[in-house]
Amino acid sequence: MQAQTHSPTGIFGNQIRYVVPLFQRPYVWSEGEQWAPLWEDVCSVADAVLQAPAPMGYGGPTVAPHFLGAIVLEQQATLAGYIAVRHVIDGQQRLTTLQILLDAVQEVVEAHGRSVDAQALHSMVTNNPAVTQAPEETFKVWPTSRDQQVFRLVMDNDQQVPPELAENAIAQAHRFFRTKTLEWSGVATEPEQAAERLGALAQTLAHHLRMVVIDLEPGDNAQVIFETLNHRGTPLLAADLIKNYLFQVATAQNADLEKLYAQFWAQFDNEYWRAPVAQGRLYRPRIDVFLNYWLTVKLLKEVATDRIFVEFRDLVRREQSPVAEIMNELAEAASIYESLDKLPESSVPARFHYRVVKALDSAAVTPFLLWLLRWNQDALRISERDRALNAVESWIVRRTLCRLTNQGVNRVVVELLRTLVRSGSPSNAGALTEEFLGAQTADSRLWPDDEWFIRSLSEEPLYKMLTRGRLRMIIEALEDDVRSEKSEAGRCPRNLTVEHVMPQEWKAHWDDGRDLIEAAQRDQLVQTLGNLTLLTGKLNSSVSNGPWTMVDASGNVLEDVGKRAALLRHSTLKLNAYLIVDHPKKWTDDDIRSRGLDMATRATEIWSRPGGLEQNAPLVSPRIVTLAGADAGGEPVPSPVVQHTGRYRALWDWLQRQHLDLVTVSFEDVEEVLNFKLPASARNYPAFWIGREGGGIRGAIADAGWRAAGVNVVDEHVTFVRGQADF
């Protein structure tokens, strides 16, 4: 390759076309990241040109040039005509931006500056029409397919950009540079100086900017150079690298590139696919997330996000298939992925997508969903497909509500896909999925049975344990279950407000003279499922914290509207209708427990577990005791205590205030007590917690009269036992 430094005049001064191949990504530069910094740099140079002393003799003022970066070009054979053509292998974003900047300034100079400056700029953005053979040949730069229409419009001073294209990045860039040129030149504020300032700006753009132009020679591998410049450092999407690679392979296979692009890839070059979406705690472009899922299904293994391109490239090399087949398979899978938010609301796949992928934030199951949806009804009956989805939904919901980790879901999904693929046919996907999940016995994979599920769902303070989205989904599912097919309202509305029936601040109107221990027990009870419902709007605090009826627990008649009447007025839910009808006069602790047990029992039918599986409810409840629950009421049980002043004193103090002899907490709960993060060794080595010797956290636990009886670094929880108690 050959590298030389050129000014914009040297790059655009001749009759030449720089064509961005269709396999390149569309224009994506933005104001904050690129346009504004570039404009500031150009203005700095233009100010220097204005302030430079007049030259002696020939030439312009001596001003240090500004470096814009590098572009990589590949010369193309010109069969006929007078205009040379080069493909832009790298640097198309800055080259396109420079053309937009030149044209925007040229438009302002033509209207408010000197004609000689306008003509000089015009010669750098258009070729001589007399030597062109097609309309697009007049443009010095020709972008990729998606951007050609708007580029043609903004580069023509006589054309207007229609509203539907006004938000395109190219249209925005041209508008930005034109506005900034008008402001900087002072056309409106200092018109007598505008021509001089515009002349300095024209000189800057023509002569005082520099680019390194790298021309590839015959035999240079453009694909390798592209990967080297982009994949190893700059923020190209994995999809951009894949697109480039596919069309390079298509070129080698003598495929029709325009046809391949229009038929299979054009759909990916829009804002929907490049928009950021959540994947775990990070946000990544939707197309890269999709490609990750597609590769998981294709390769039947987990694919790290930083290896998407490498895994895809290696797959293409191994299969040696026509590119058209691979792109067709990608396009079909993309159509399924894009349809996930548009599935019929009453369908099982739509319900699964909402409950599992969205509400429970378990996007790791998406490859499994895509695999099921790819089959037609001849290969996979709808009933069998739905059976498979129901099994996975039940497995994840039960594990979530039993406070079991879902960190290994991606590995389970991959193993499940392998099982389904190796069966040779998707026809028994439902039965195989139930069998696979039912056979899991490890704590990180087991499918909790009904006893465990009911206990967790009815007794745990779900309002404190779950995010609002997850809790709302659980109650929505219970509401859907009690609605008949003849219900006028159909399915339960989404995004309702979670409301306590007996308020959290119950002491004002619900206090019946209970002691501290009983009060603490009620504090825990009001957070359980039996006391929760959904409303169409949030109640004001006076109603929300009010009594059940117009008469409070002491028999006082109140003027405020009772909670029962407010539920009646603000809700059309069946759950609330039963609540109001069944409890006309009062709502008690026993009512909460009874309703919670009923709701939990019905939940076992919504998220059923196949019969015949081994029971796995632990002898000791696996409940992760929340801090509020562990601190509840009463006097602490005496235990030998030694004063502790170390870093972990907060845990030492917290353990002394517990009223149970066994407490199981998550590592996150411990961090909440300590008010700082645990070291990495806490999550990797049980020995960090266990033992009575030494300082650190072990010393704090021992000094408080407790011991760590069990540590699960996979599920990230620890069980503390008081003194020598046996469990």
From TrEMBL:
Keywords: Endonuclease, Hydrolase, Nuclease. It comes from the Bacteria. Residues 648-720 form the DUF7662 domain. Residues 11-247 form the GmrSD restriction endonucleases N-terminal domain. InterPro entries: DUF7662, GmrSD_C, GmrSD_N. Pfam families: DUF7662 (PF24698), GmrSD_C (PF07510), GmrSD_N (PF03235). This is DUF262 domain-containing HNH endonuclease family protein. It comes from Kineosporia babensis.
